[in-house]
Amino acid sequence: MRWTRWWRRRPLTCPEVARLLQRHLDQEVPEHLAVRVQAHLEDCRRCGLEAEAYQQIKQAVRRQGQPLPPEAVERLRAFAASLLEEGKDGAGGPR
Amino acid sequence: MTGTTEDRSRPSAPPTTLRRVAASPEEQGRTSIADDEAFRQFVVPEIETMLRVAGTLTRDTGEAEDLVQDALVRAYRGIAGFDGRYPRAWLLTIVRNTHINRGRRKRPEPAEDPDADLDRVARHTTESTVEASVVDIVIDDVVQECLRELPRDQLRIVELVDVAGLTYREAAEKIDVPIGTVMSRLHRARKRMRDHLVRAGIGPGRSRR
């Protein structure tokens, strides 16, 4: 019984964290396990860097998934063109 | 007014190299054909990237557009002092600094020349800032390329979980597959992106032997 309790609270190993990492980043592991994964990530540089890389990937994917409003892009292109047009007189562009 | 003698003799020709000669202070603020060409070559193609980054900074579509407009004005005024290296990093630094200044402007402060820090942006961008911007850009580019190459079933899961923010269970129900399938497809997709990042020199693998 005592052994079982210890086993459930012991620090996680790198392979165990590797198996849980994706679920952890997606907040899909139970709280008690998330705490142990997080503790390992803070202690283990290699696993911490791995987690950071996946976190950056998640953020980049989220950025990619948000479509830019085409009309905003068009307006900005037109604005850039107007800067070039108004700059021709040497005024340095509109203010 | 950054063109060389050769540039002036062929004013309509775009810069042939990325590196441009910085203008002298007295020349700055004036526009030239070479500067306009540089603006077209370096700035205009990056408008979408600037808007994307502005969106992450402001978290508001309208504000993001205003921010990019301000950044474009600053880029236009600063293009003469830009040496042509890392244009995207330079522009994203302008977007970030403009965002900070817009935040300051909302607080009462003694009036100052709005272009006072333009030279600092153009010339004194720290290497670490540039590097951070470049790293962000590389990650975005690699991820974008990977997403294009992902098998449809993996891409669908990535969209549901990472973009739409669904839980594994919700994603599984949405496309009627077991949760285990959601996890394995998602993890394979991310592993692929991670491996691409490592190959691009970004990511934890670069320090491993």
How would the blueprint of this fold be written?
The complex is a heterodimer of chains A (95) and B (209).
Chain A (H helix, E strand, L loop, with lengths): L1 H8 L4 H12 L5 H13 L1 H21 L4 H18 L8
Helix pairs in contact in A: 2-3, 2-4, 3-4
Chain B lengths: L4 H5 L23 H11 L3 H12 L2 H18 L8 H19 L12 H6 L3 H23 L2 H12 L4 H8 L3 H21 L10
Helix pairs in contact in B: 3-4, 3-5, 4-5, 5-7, 7-10, 8-10, 9-10
List the defining traits of the structure above.
heterodimer; A: 95 residues; mainly alpha; rod-shaped; B: 209 residues; Arc Repressor Mutant, subunit A; 2 domains; 10 helices; 65% helix; elongated
Poorly predicted runs of chain B: 1-30, 122-126
- Helical content class of chain B: 55-70%
> Proportion of β residues of chain A?
under 5%
Assembly level = heterodimer
What is the residue-mean pLDDT of chain B, rounded to a whole number? 76
If you compute it from the alpha carbons, what radius of gyration of chain B comes out, rounded to the nearest whole angstrom?
22 Å
**Number of separate strands of chain B:** 0
Structural class, judged by helices and strands of chain A?
mainly alpha
- Which of globular, elongated, flat, extended, rod-shaped describes the shape of chain B? elongated
Mean pLDDT of chain A: 87
Class inferred from helices and paired strands of chain B: mainly alpha
Measured between the Cα atoms of the first and last residue of chain B, the distance is 49 Å
